[in-house]
């Protein structure tokens, strides 16, 4: 701690909204930085700063350009005047850098109105919590003479560029320190021309004191109806339709099971209908969203955890399941291969191949209990050693000392 | 028989409606029946004199004028009926002004038959039966096939009201059977197939397959269309060394498909296009070797009917009423739903067929549409349905 007293750095963290209680990642990061003597200012691009007290850090909200044309115009003029009066040098630099990047005067002024709320604090670092939040704000850090950091979480690295073609083209030209969740993501960024030294892998972490198991997990035998569990948003990236197809294979093979799917999302109808058509609806429970303590209860009662995602940055829920001593089977999507080590802490199956997933589940069910216990123990040990919150906090502190 | 022509309300909530509902409206009106259209007016349509449009624009002023006009008419000339409807609205907690904008015009015009196009709105219109209007419901796709599976409340509503409906228009026999699970009375279900305008239909000609085999699908990017299975099948085809291209018209904006194409390395084979106008779609279909319908559920897919009418080979999943139009290996091809391997295998099989065999299948496909899916048949079927609900209850 003595070191932090020498130089107290201020970090501006840009998020779309104040993180909720369940968003361990950012909450842990903020608390960890504060404990290490950093000052954190949270900038939110959407929504009011209502949860300020909960986080014990200053929260600054961006302006809302919503409503009638007149209202938006008045807000824009107000924001511009404020920027010019209160931060003239930063505003000038921002326009200058934007112009150098080929933006027209009008575009530069528009970008200035959107970004000026980030100018009013002296910052050592400006850290964008998601890649897409840095789009349109590529020159802010340079304008305020802070260092720039960007976190990629999976969805924003892999899917956003499909929706917004070339959206990171300008960002990748800038001097940025990137934080990613897995080595796979790091490799993908390197392929896009980012220098290796500018990319830091900081894995997600879980509260291992909350997600811990008792010895009974090791005495569980799978000779009864096997209880399978997944915690996931009901979204296509989670590969849940493929998961249900694998379960249909289990049913055809005469293996009794019950599958519990915890989570909510826009594709519930698609998945319920898939379960119906695949004739496994009677063996599937869609619980909707559950609180952490209930999830822990469900994990305690389950035997096998599946995360057969199509795309996954890393997958916190798999860490929690491993910590709880479940047998985990995951797809080979991006970070999942690092989350679960094939044959050591669980099993990794190529994605989009439900027959292979079913075969893997059937295969692990046939393993002797002693072998299953070894895998479980290795998973628990690894998660407790490598994916705990304190480690993540230290890594973030080190990140800003790069 | 009634002396005056029947007055039929064809209700989808929107004016104009989808292509097929518009075709139904014009067909019914042209056969001498008076048609009334209620709902939100998005574009002033040009119907003949037998179609009465009672629509409102989506703005406050238009809705207010609509409400004022019909409130006054009802208060002056149908006071008792208005009172009864108001009581029902109150009892069922439909108390907003918009509810009155929606219901008052129907009570004023009181058609002989109120024909709802979408089942999810059935509980909104069950009251018309208390005012001597017969209630007819079209059984179409999503509303019957999958929505009530995931939505228990909707299933309960169907269970409560389907038995009360005077007549059903089923777009396929299969969907009629599905509706019976919710209490629809079998005898009241009329299977009336969608009809096409076949006036410009020309006989298929012998044509060699494209050097690079051309597959095409047309449809909105919705999970029910099963495109993820088609793309998985494409991966199998690529792995088998098959030289092909697959175009999904309407799939351009779906990140799920874009990601899958990227994930499976199909960038050179798969083209995701945005929505195209009718003529462009027809041209694209005609240039293809095979139209693929990978859906996991359907009523009867209109795009398949259109492709068969154009004399194009069709490979469809065996879902809903698709087997009522496609006889495998006779006039098209069927594969099980959710089975990428079967889809890929069948595509390879089709590609190997001699062009003369393909021509025979294409000719029989077109003949099937001529037998079963003409506009004349559709309108006659609908007239018979309307007559039956009137005569059964008089």
Ordered list of secondary-structure elements with their pairings:
The complex is a heterodimer of chains A (402) and B (394).
Chain A: H1 2-6, E1 10-15, H2 24-35, E2 39-44, H3 52-55, E3 58-61, H4 69-86, H5 88-100, H6 105-115, E4 125-128, H7 131-134, H8 140-143, E5 147-151, H9 155-163, E6 177-180, H10 183-191, E7 199-201, H11 216-219, E8 226-231, H12 240-252, E9 257-262, H13 268-277, E10 284-288, H14 292-301, E11 304-307, H15 316-323, E12 327-331, H16 336-339, E13 347-349, H17 354-365, H18 369-386, H19 389-399
Parallel strand pairs in A: 1-2, 1-4, 2-3, 4-5, 5-6, 6-7, 8-9, 8-11, 9-10, 11-12, 12-13
Chain B: E1 7-11, E2 13-15, H1 19-30, E3 34-41, E4 51-56, H2 60-77, H3 79-91, H4 97-109, E5 113-116, H5 122-125, E6 134-139, H6 141-145, H7 147-150, H8 152-161, E7 167-170, H9 173-180, E8 189-191, E9 213-218, H10 227-239, E10 244-249, H11 255-263, E11 270-273, H12 278-287, E12 290-293, H13 302-309, E13 314-317, E14 333-335, H14 340-352, H15 355-372, H16 375-392
Parallel strand pairs in B: 1-3, 1-5, 2-3, 3-4, 5-6, 6-7, 7-8, 9-10, 9-12, 10-11, 12-13, 13-14
Care to describe what's here?
The complex is a heterodimer of chains A (402) and B (394). With 402 residues, chain A is of the alpha/beta class. Chain A folds into 2 domains: 2-62 and 121-205 and 389-399, Glycogen Phosphorylase B (Rossmann fold); 216-386, Glycogen Phosphorylase B (Rossmann fold, 3-Layer(aba) Sandwich), CATH 3.40.50. Helices cover 45% and strands 15% of the residues of chain A. Chain A has 19 helices and 13 strands. In chain A, the strands form 2 sheets. In chain A, strands 3-2-1-4-5-6-7 form a 7-stranded parallel β-sheet, with helices on both faces. In chain A, strands 10-9-8-11-12-13 form a 6-stranded parallel β-sheet, sandwiched between helices. In chain A, α4 (69-86) crosses α6. Chain A starts with a helix and ends with a helix. Chain B is α/β, with parallel strands linked by helices and 394 residues long. Chain B is built from 16 helices and 14 strands. Chain B has helices at residues 19-30, 60-77, 79-91, 97-109, 122-125, 141-145, 147-150, 152-161, 173-180, 227-239, 255-263, 278-287, 302-309, 340-352, 355-372, 375-392, and strands at residues 7-11, 13-15, 34-41, 51-56, 113-116, 134-139, 167-170, 189-191, 213-218, 244-249, 270-273, 290-293, 314-317, 333-335. In chain B, β5 (113-116), α5 and β6 (134-139) form a beta-alpha-beta unit. Classes of the chains: A alpha/beta (402), B alpha/beta (394).
